[in-house]
Design brief:
Blueprint lengths: L8 E5 L2 H14 L3 E5 L13 E5 L7 H17 L4 E5 L12 H12 L4 E4 L7 E4 L2 E4 L2 E2 L18 H6 L6 E4 L1 H4 L3 H13 L4 E4 L4 H11 L4 E4 L1 H14 L17 E6 L4 H13 L4 E3 L2 H4 L4 H15 L5 E3 L4 H11 L1 H21 L2 E7 L1 H10 L4 E9 L2 E6 L8 E6 L8 H8 L2
Parallel strand pairs: 1-3, 1-4, 2-3, 4-11, 5-10, 5-11, 9-10, 12-14, 12-15, 13-14, 15-18
Antiparallel strand pairs: 2-16, 6-7, 7-8, 16-17, 17-18
The structure holds adenosine-5'-diphosphate.
The site of adenosine-5'-diphosphate (ADP) has 23 residues, from helix 12, helix 13 and helix 14.
């Protein structure tokens, strides 16, 4: 058991930003939540924590690796006494035909000695709904939503029962909207009937929050549930109804933030480019552009960026260091250097800048870009994130203890298309 643990929910997320998205919803539902990066190798202080989300990188890796990592996370979460387990994947059910959702769910069920779980990917407020087992993104079926062209996990089939049937040898069943509309008792009865037929995996319809509430109520006693972060927001109310969870007045409350404020951006997504432009319009002298072609020539541009940031920070002025660039520039750099090398140069430069500047007193750090965030967090040696209040949908402030200094580091990690246009300034306004 971890120190002082009373862990109600233990979650295993198949990627980093997905973990944060779930953690954010758990806080909104009223749980004090800690995200851990990978399976902890050391004792983690879980005092005053109700939910832990373990962030893995198991979405697109080989099946064996995804299963092994998920089982290790399960083992650790059980040691912390988690009452219910949650396997979190993307609301678009991102997976290959071989997995990893089916094999991981099967392995977790087996390890728990459980016979059935539900699959609830829907996230209605983000337009992800499921009807008759078919996944919709807005008004399009999944395979017609753009996801059919995803570079890593192209989703060419919206029929989730069929998708899952390719990933597991066990029977797949459905709880449809008609059953949900009759409430939690009818849903539980349907799940039992399916269990009697040996159905291990039950795809669940959900069109709105109310359906998710019914599902959360019907499945609160299951050892394992699986799905997207929408279900995560519905579960805490059920834990309170069970008496497992107290009413917590400010589940996202963090220690007061302190130290210099820095924005690092390695995301070239459309939303991020608009956020960079908005910041530069407000602070024309506040940004320094990094360019992989210049970075490839040695450390000079990185030194300049460091000097620029130090000067701005000493004046307590907002500062943005960014490699974000439009498609044309990105293509040019990728053509000259190769895609992986261009990306690695940027990630390495931003990570090193983060390490230097945090060491020199930056205490509030915003990072834009999923991969970029992963690189920065790993360079800073961060292993746990306490989840705070939401800045914009899906992106919370977080805090992490820093060795050798008293105040924690406040950190916001924004993947590509998240956040409003003023995110790079708004985030610091809402941070207390
Ligand atoms: P997002 O969340 O928007 O997808 P990521 O950080 O995950 O952002 O991915 C962006 C990738 O693009 C990173 O690997 C980053 O290093 C790389 N990158 C950033 N700027 C440039 C640039 N100017 N040229 C080429 N690659 C870049």
């Amino acid at each position: 058991m971890g120190m002082g643990a009373n862990i109600v929910l233990g979650a295993i997320a198949d990627d980093f930003t997905g973990a944060t998205d779930l953690a954010n919803n758990l806080v909104r539902g009223g749980m004090r939540c800690l995200q851990v990066i990978g399976v902890p190798q050391q004792e983690v202080d879980l005092t005053g924590i109700d939910a832990v989300v373990v962030a893995l990188k198991s979405r697109s890796c080989p099946v064996d690796e995804a299963v092994a990592d998920s089982l290790a996370a399960l083992e650790w979460l059980r040691q912390q006494g988690a009452r219910q387990l949650f396997f979190k994947y993307c609301s678009t059910f991102d997976s290959t035909d071989q997995g990893n959702i089916g094999p991981v769910a099967d392995a977790l069920l087996e390890a728990l000695g459980a016979h059935q779980t539900v699959m609830v990917p829907a996230f209605p407020i983000n337009g992800r709904t499921v009807y008759q087992g078919h996944l919709f993104v807005g008004d399009r079926l999944l395979n017609d939503s753009g996801m059919q062209h995803h570079p890593l996990n192209p989703m060419q089939d919206a029929d989730l029962m069929r998708v899952l049937a390719r990933q597991t040898p066990h029977p797949v069943g459905l709880v449809n909207r008609t059953v949900l509309a009759q409430g939690a008792d009818a849903t539980r009865a349907q799940l039992s009937a399916l269990a009697e037929q040996g159905v291990r995996h039950v795809i669940c319809d959900s069109l709105d929050e109310q359906d998710l509430d019914v599902l959360a109520e019907a499945t609160v006693a299951m050892p394992l549930v699986t799905g997207g972060s929408g279900l995560g927001q519905a579960l805490p109310a059920q834990y309170r109804a069970q008496g497992w969870l107290d009413t917590i007045s400010e589940p996202g409350r963090l220690s007061p933030a302190s130290g210099g404020a820095l924005v690092l951006s390695g995301s070239c997504s459309r939303a991020t480019l608009a956020q960079v432009a908005d910041f530069l319009a407000k602070y024309p002298d506040g940004g320094f552009a990094l360019d992989p072609l210049a970075l490839a020539e040695g450390g000079k541009q990185q030194e300049q960026a460091l000097a620029f940031a130090r000067k701005r920070l000493s004046q307590e002025a907002p500062v943005l260091l960014y490699a974000s660039a439009d498609t044309e520039k990105v293509n040019a750099a990728q053509k000259a250097l190769g895609v992986a090398h261009a990306g690695a140069l940027v990630e390495e430069a931003l990570s090193q800048l983060a390490v230097n500047l945090v060491d020199e007193g930056v205490g509030r750090l915003l990072v834009a870009g999923g991969e970029t965030s992963g690189a920065v967090v790993s360079a800073l040696g961060i292993t746990t994130l306490r989840i705070g209040e939401q800045i914009d949908p899906g992106v919370p402030w977080t805090q992490t203890p820093m060795a050798g200094r008293e105040a924690p580091l406040s950190l916001a990690l924004k993947s590509g298309n998240f956040g409003g246009v003023d995110f790079f300034t708004w985030a610091f306004e809402v941070l207390v």
